[in-house]
Amino acid sequence: MTSDRTSLLPSTLLIGEERLDTATGGVLEHIHPASGKVQATLPLAGAGEVDRAVAAAQAALPIWRSWEPSARRRALMKLADLLRDHAEEISTIHSLETGMPFTQAAWPTNWAVDWLEDAAGWADKLYGDTVPIGSNGLFNYTAVEPYGVVATILTWNGSVGAFGMAAGPALAAGCTVVVKPSELSPFGPIRAAELALEAGFPPGVINVIAGGPEAGEALVSHPGISKIAFTGGGPTAKRIAVSAAQNLTPCMFELGGKSASITFGDADLSAAIQHAQFVSVHAGQQCTLGSRMFVHRSVFDEFNDRLASALQSITVGLPFVDGSQMGPLINQAAIDRVHGLVDRARSYGEVRAGGSRLGGDLSDGYFFPPTLVSGITNDSELARTEVFGPVLATIPFDDEDEVIAMANDTEFGLSGYVFSSDISRVHRVVPKLDTGNVGVNGAFVTAGPTLPFGGRKQSGYGKQGGLAGVMEFVNTKTVTIKLGDPS
Fold this sequence. Notes:
Helix 2 (69-85) runs antiparallel to helix 4 (106-123), helix 2 crosses helix 6 and helix 4 packs parallel to helix 5. The strands form 6 sheets. This protein has a 7-stranded mixed beta sheet with strand order 14-15-16-13-12-18-19, with helices on both faces. By secondary structure, the chain is an alpha/beta fold. It contains 15 helices and 22 strands. A hairpin with a 4-residue loop joins strand 3 and strand 4.
């Protein structure tokens, strides 16, 4: 099914304007998640290629930061236009990388376009401040300046969308970037960087090097890196922080979550159930998914019955087959992890939908159905662990204070959700949730370019989106001028 499409997958790394078809980190054999078979190969960067990429970014930095901010804005807009023009190609690449149904795969491209266009709008609006002259005769002002070379280490589940989210704001701020995509989805970011050259970006402003742990360690510990932006898991972030500390390199971390979704007895259950069906998007491989679902006891049974039926109606299928609503998990390790969590949950909860790997025509891929486990407790493994798969778990509650305490009883703090027709209750509950983002009555929380997005606790620190996200990549310089005495 994919043999006529894999020619779209880039086969080289990009450093400056040089395309590398060999590298010192070995060769990646990329497996298509829907077939379990190798569909492409790609060279992997080693420490040597990391040095070359950082050097290229350093060489391009004076050029890029010297551009008029309006010129950087136009370049970012041109790249967004090119991504939009190549939307079908990029969407196909995303489906090949991740197995997402092709009918849904346009969103990472659209997401990247939105991030780049929003970042472009800030490129010529990054101003400093002036301070009124005091009796001491000093004139003071501040200027914002780009950090320098930024290492952007991408999550696999966004591909080109993750590229736009991480690289766009840094580029708008005048930084250059070394992008390390995940080996699971390296092709979209490489293609985006190729289009950036067509858009007129100077060579070296954007460099993309796929690589394994050796390349990652070399990148985050490199003295030529001025800031690190990482999206991924907490254990990896902690290792990055240790390596970055050797050079006091600042980091921005967008990490995992175990988001609590609270449905009160007066909620619109149809809206809450429709929202829960987002578990099918990207096969539940989303950090903001409200997979830990607290449901008031008065509607608990009805909610579970209706949700189980809704999940069973979702069509799981191959990415390029019409009617597919959900694709596979990303690899064998993912399906082993998800299967293990659900199997162990059978001892303390009831599996109401799904629960086992799919066979038949889907047996070669990593397909796991939308799954509901009801009646678990908040101290169980399934409630404490980020599944990163299409698994929802429901927990009953009786009163407001109880559910707030349970929702906050987690090491994560990325997102939360509240469903209630009582607006007073909504405004009481939302401030008490120890999380960086909250969606109410069906609003899905996701990293988007127009609003600051970020987590608390083990979900990371720093912001992506809005002016706050662009300001992550600038330093503020204070200038003090002694004025002469009046003559």
